[in-house]
Design brief:
The protein is an all-beta fold. It folds into 3 domains: 35-135, Immunoglobulin-like (Sandwich), CATH 2.60.40; 208-280; 285-462, no CATH class. The chain has helices at residues 310-313, 316-319, 397-400, and strands at 35-43, 46-47, 53-58, 61-66, 72-73, 81-85, 97-102, 105-106, 108-111, 121-122, 128-135, 208-215, 219-222, 225-230, 235-241, 245-252, 255-256, 262-265, 272-280, 286-290, 293-298, 322-328, 333-334, 347-352, 356-360, 371-374, 377-381, 387-388, 391-392, 395-396, 413-418, 426-429, 436-437, 443-447, 451-454. The radius of gyration is 35 Å and the shape is flat. 32% of the residues are buried.
């Protein structure tokens, strides 16, 4: 996700899950999306330390998190503050005031970039807000003034006037006998107080480092050759096999790494090498394009070791465009953390600024089709169709959910919803006219009773 958010990241947008009116009992409503927050947090005008506990409270729900960076909350990685309903039947009214607390003390809030502080902030479903938090008001701004500003003026102003009047007699007689008895009294009484405060400092130059990027026959790496990188910067390389070829091996500093089409060196602090080789055969990964705004995203296939985590699926260039990722555990929203593994039959909400590309590399071990337990109520699922003719095709909803159908005495799913978030929007009631579930997308399924959902994909696929 975005490692450094921009000011005014995006306008306040809500996600509306539009449900068709259907004649089923009981009536159901889609879950409320959380209101997520990120921003600066201060205590007495000083950046709050790591492990600061931030909580939010609103009628019907709330949220909390512990900070991992000084002076910031929810800005890096997947650690935003979620405010959402708590309790089985809880709900939050739009516009309800949210109160925030820092280590148990009620905080003042303001939108990022604005000057007015308030006691609360209104709830809005599906919105991500840049909100600064503070307690303690303004800290003392008086810097210790114990540094002497006046140099002592007690420099003697009188020089002894009793000069010896007995001159050695061995001195030539032409020595003046009128020795001055008054010494000059104009001794400076003011010692310069403008002692230089800027000690010359030696500026440490930011030396560039070099990454040697090479590619074997039947493919390319971009950029290539000796690539100059400023110390502390990131550098990404894109690997593209020729038609009919795939990545065989990627060696970074002589060691093999996951065969992703994009490799990024983060926080470069030394010279490196990256060498890529190719072999004949089909591509070993699939791509899914995510559009601007909200997307529902899933994998149709079990992903290989080193490719199954979100930070592996999305290259750095795509993570920079992702504002927030949300998952649904059957009763509440959650933000997937570092090393969250995306598995078949599960789906995530991903909010994208502009566009993002996901790279899905299947496992090369022999596996059985995936299964997942669905709970009573709302479930967020992703289809897992079988691999055919170089890809994954759409399957009718009744085929995809055949194992979760239930029976007349104990019905399974009652309704399936496709929110119109970069995918076709529709509602489907069990036994209604058939519609297709698309691979790489996500769908809401309402279960009357718990059931087991089974997918159709297996690995290896080549």
């Amino acid at each position: 996700m975005k490692s450094h958010r921009k000011t005014g990241w995006f306008s306040l947008l809500g996600l509306l899950l539009i449900l068709a009116i259907v004649t089923i009992s009981p009536a159901v409503a889609a879950p409320i999306l959380p209101h997520t927050f990120y921003g600066n947090v201060t205590i007495g005008s000083q950046p709050a330390p790591v492990n600061t506990h931030i909580t939010a409270s609103v009628t019907g729900g709330g949220g909390d998190l512990v900070t991992t960076l000084v002076g910031e909350y929810g800005i890096h990685d997947f650690n935003t503050l979620e405010v959402q309903p708590s309790g089985e039947d809880a709900t939050i009214t739009g516009g309800a005031p949210i109160s925030f607390f820092i280590n148990g003390v009620k905080a003042e809030v303001r939108e990022g970039g604005k000057s007015t502080w308030s006691a609360s902030y209104p709830f809005a479903s599906g919105v991500d807000t840049n909100l600064d938090l503070r307690i303690g008001g303004t800290a003392p701004t008086t810097v210790p003034t114990t540094v002497p500003t006046t140099v002592p003026t007690t420099v003697p102003t009188t020089v002894p006037t009793t000069v010896p009047t007995t001159v050695p007699t061995t001195v030539p007689s032409t020595v003046p006998t009128t020795v001055p008895t008054t010494a000059p009294t104009t001794v400076p009484t003011t010692v310069p107080t403008t002692v230089p405060t800027t000690v010359p400092t030696t500026e440490i130059p930011v030396f560039p480092y070099y990454i040697s990027a090479t590619a074997g026959p039947n493919g390319a790496i971009t950029p290539s050759g000796s690539v100059s990188v400023v110390s502390g910067a990131d550098q990404s390389f894109t690997i593209v096999p020729a038609t009919g070829y795939t990545i065989d091996q990627i060696l970074v500093d002589g060691n093999p790494v996951a065969k992703n089409p994009v490799y990024t060196f983060n926080d470069v602090a030394a010279d490196h090498t990256i060498a890529v080789s190719f072999r004949e055969g089909s591509l070993e990964y699939f791509t899914a394009e995510l559009g601007n705004g909200w997307n529902l995203f899933s994998t149709p296939i079990l992903l290989g070791s080193g490719h199954q985590y979100l930070e592996n699926i999305f290259p750095a260039s795509s993570l920079e465009n992702i504002d927030v990722i949300l998952g649904w555990n059957g009763s509440a929203w959650f933000i997937p953390g570092y090393h969250y593994e995306l598995a078949p039959l599960h789906a995530l909400y991903v909010k994208v600024d502009d566009s993002a590309t996901a790279y899905l590399s299947p496992s090369d071990t022999i596996t059985v089709p995936p299964v997942r337990s669905l709970v009573k109520g709302w479930n967020l699922i992703g289809p897992a169709p079988d691999y055919q003719e170089g890809g994954f095709s759409a399957r009718p909803v009744e085929d995809t959910l055949v194992t979760a159908y239930g029976n007349q005495e104990n019905p399974g799913y009652l309704i399936v919803i496709s929110p119109g978030v970069n995918q076709p929007g529709w509602s489907y009631v069990r036994d209604a006219m058939s519609v297709d579930l698309l691979p790489y997308k996500g769908y809401w399924v309402f279960m009357e009773n718990p059931e087991t959902l089974a997918g159709f994909s297996t690995t290896p696929i080549f």
